[in-house]
Amino acid sequence: MTRTHEAARSSAATAAAATARTRSPRAGDMLAVVSQGGSSVTFFDAVGHGRLDVLPLPSQPHELCYDPARRLLYVSITYHAGYYHANAGRARELVVIDPDTRRIVDTVDLAPDHAPHGLLLDPVRDLLWVSVEATEEETGGLVALDATTRRRVRRVPVHAPGPHWFAVTPDGRRAYSANKEAPFVSVVDLETGEALDRIEVPGSEGIDISPDGRYVYVAAPKGDYHPGSVPGAGVRIIDTTTGRTVRTLATENVVFPVHTTSQGLLLAGELRVSAGSDGASLGTQEPGVLHIHDAGGEPLGRVPVGAFPLTITSSPDGRFGYVAAILDSTVTVVDLAEARVVTTLEVEHEGESGAHGLAYISAP
What we know:
Organism: Streptomyces lichenis
Strand order of the largest sheet: 3-2-1-30
Protein name: YncE family protein
CATH topology: Methylamine Dehydrogenase, Chain H
CATH architecture: 7 Propeller
Distance between the termini: 27 Å
Number of domains: 1
CATH superfamily: YVTN repeat-like/Quinoprotein amine dehydrogenase
Strand content: over 45%
Number of strands: 30
Shape: globular
Radius of gyration: 19 Å
């Protein structure tokens, strides 16, 4: 492929992504929701919220990423069963779905890497980035696939065993990786593979970056399923220029998902664990809370959501938020301007693993 063709392809992908980020919801838009325990992805009408279809997947799917330039949906298959802290072996596949026909069109084997989790598209360089856990030979890292051929381009180590969620700067040059056990957020150069910084954070879960690239938002500390308040729990706001935490948005219990909308709102999902824990692997989870903040961290509202909020996404215009709760296996649709629940979507599941990954799919 010539440089001219590469530039044209990148320009088209960037334009498609920009259009998808700013357009208001309309007829034909869909919301895709993974059911981890149900090993499926459910498609909902994003306007009327009716269920459209359910597509079976290999077990156990985790996260979703939508490519608007090719109208493809990527699903990470992370474990054969279970969770990060208790699983029956690590999987290594990405499933590629045509959302319009609701069928699987490809499966990508990431071997020798395994446990793919987070997925992000870089439309500037036309790359799909995937986080993978450490193997016996290599630390955890970020693997880049060519978004057209789905062939491996490079692997960037993050020097921590368990990266799951990560964020990429708007220019596609740097990535910030949250690391469950490691007491730092990794900052890496995605072109050279160089480790740029380690930002002190006491173990971390969800992470995202502001649309202007000024701030990175990190949920910390890592998941604790014991009842009662967790000291230091909340969202750290990190200045990307200095690499320093400039503010902490405190919560009573741990936060897992963090998401920024196209309009710059910061959304965070707080877990709630009751005092009468029944010994379940994830504790006795009560309904969670969605916190809505502006980009600087000022509170704008709180909304009740399902038990164990795990993933958040939003509509292209930033008006609606979607919160997947894995234990209730629901998706709470929230009007972010009014801080109110619009409706709750039910997702089929088995056991305690339900709704997980989310993706908003704009109509053709």
